[in-house]
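Human:
Care to share another protein and its fold?

Assistant:
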Amino acid sequence: MSAEATNPGAHSRRRGRPRIDLRRLGRAALLGPAARDRLPDAIGHVADAHRAHHPDADLAVLHKAYVLAESSHRGQFRKSGEPYITHPLAVTLILAELGAETTTLTASLLHDTVEDTEVTLDQVRTEFGAEVCYLVDGVTKLEKVDYGAAAEPETFRKMLVATGNDVRVMSIKLADRLHNMRTLGVMRPEKQARIAKVTRDVLIPLAERLGVQALKTELEDLVFAILHPEEYERTRALIADNSSASGALDTMAESFRSVLRDAGIAAEVLIRPRHFVSVHRISLKRGELRGTDLGRLLVLVGEDADCYGVLGELHTCFTPVISEFKDFIAAPKFNLYQSLHTAVAGPEGAVAEVLIRTHQMHKVAEAGVIALGNPYVPVEGVEPADGERADPTRPGWLSRLLDWQQSTPDPDTFWTSLRADLAQDREITVFRADGGMLGLPAGASCVDAAYAQYGEEAHACIGARVNGRLATLSTVLSDGDTVHLLLAQDAASGPSPDWLDHARTPGARIAITTWLAEHPEGAKVQAAAPRRPVPVTADRPAAANAVVDLPDATVRLAGCCTPVPPDAVIGFAVRGGTVTVHREKCPAVARMKSLDREPVPVSWGDAAECRVTLVAESFGRPRLLADLTEAIATEGAAIVSATVEPPSQQRVRHTYTLQLPDAAGLPALMRAMRDVPGVYDVSRTQHPAATA
């Protein structure tokens, strides 16, 4: 397969700049430096592209870097037969067209010198400074002679760690891989496939996370052509067969221009053709394609407010497809992407997808972090928080990746975990109970949130509240959820093997697997075993201090609702002349009234002593029963009886009948019981009684 055949983006509908003739560049490079007053012809294209984004850029350092790269690589040739200098030149041109600043371009010109020539890092540092040296070192491969089969995963580990300090390292690597993929046709098919698979599993997801869509889409097409040649050929034929149908998009674009012009909104309306993989995906989704399916309409405006103005005009003058609307301006994607997405139907019924964004948003959508220039240069008048550099990519996925890679010294485990992590193509944001935020991949559970927030301390996690409601650790979180994680005080607690079924992030899986390996006994220490009801005789007699207007009547407080002063109560006469007293809201009261039972007025006497039944809901843990009984005793209550139900899903239900010396102490007692670690609710019993 030739280099041209592996380049489905050769028609390059995305950029108007023609593809550079690398053979001509190679010949120019072999001629050596030009006169002192101008740049060599071979780097002139880079200079033009760079000046288009940075008119005031100092090109002297690029000239100096080119001279060093050309002289160092002189005599080296690529497998295609081209002078090797054409590769760093092409990589630098890719970055220059995307708007990279001078330091990045300098490092890209030199990115292979330390790896493939006699140039050393010390020489690069001396000639170009520590910043360029760091970038060059970050993309320099580790030697196979030193690392053997682990050289590739360890090289990526080294590169990712370097990216954690400077995202421009990965920008250079992505451009380097793109040019290598463009010229991959000279290699054996099996090597093409191996490189394409690594590109698909690692580089393309990284390009997506850094927001560099211009590189990501072309890499996707190149990988598609190599790994799925039959589908690629069918897609290419499909595009060719429908090329004449693109007039529907032209017609709608002209209608958009007319509507926006009449509304007084200055906007540029462009047709944005889909790349090969996008056409393939939409053909699988929709079957037979229409002319408007081969592209989308892009509307560019000057200000954020104009985006919503355009949206309003289009939804007013055309029929909107409401299900297709997404607002990535108010809620940007984790990779910096901002845009309004919608779809509208024209007069003829043709439906077109529409992207609405500002020119700056478009620049960032295409080039991602590359469009930010040098993100580490302090902005005048803006103080960085806590002395840290303002890097928009560092707080999310990259921080998580750098954290878990430290726990995976084994190259194979790292390589497998890296691919699994990057396969998560969406990210959600959840809010912590303290107001902070956690970035997690879509499909993450409370287990993942626990390890993201607490690290190894999450071994002691016993439950969670999601949006204020109790939830199991297996609960899958959604974007915008609030999660409050509950930890046991027992430091010896550990994760259950079942947690691995719910963990989606490599960090959580690695931490759980490591703990289980270090504790062969396996399962997490469970709550105290189910016990039979434990009767406890109270020191004080049970005395009902409720008074009824029936002479010689025996008064009994209902066990179903355990009323205490100053509850509003009502009584009902039962067999044997006994009056059972219920709280007015007890379900038994409604049942009695439905049977036409006459209520008996009840009032509270002077005696303060009372008996009450409380139910404590908790997560299972060691010493929970002891801690609860200690809290009850500290409040001066006597336990008449207690039962502990068998644990269910790590939850335990305790029921206590208590004798209180004073009913006024009940609120304090319930608070003390709720404060016991692991207890999430304490309530008075409210259930139908067996007898009235």
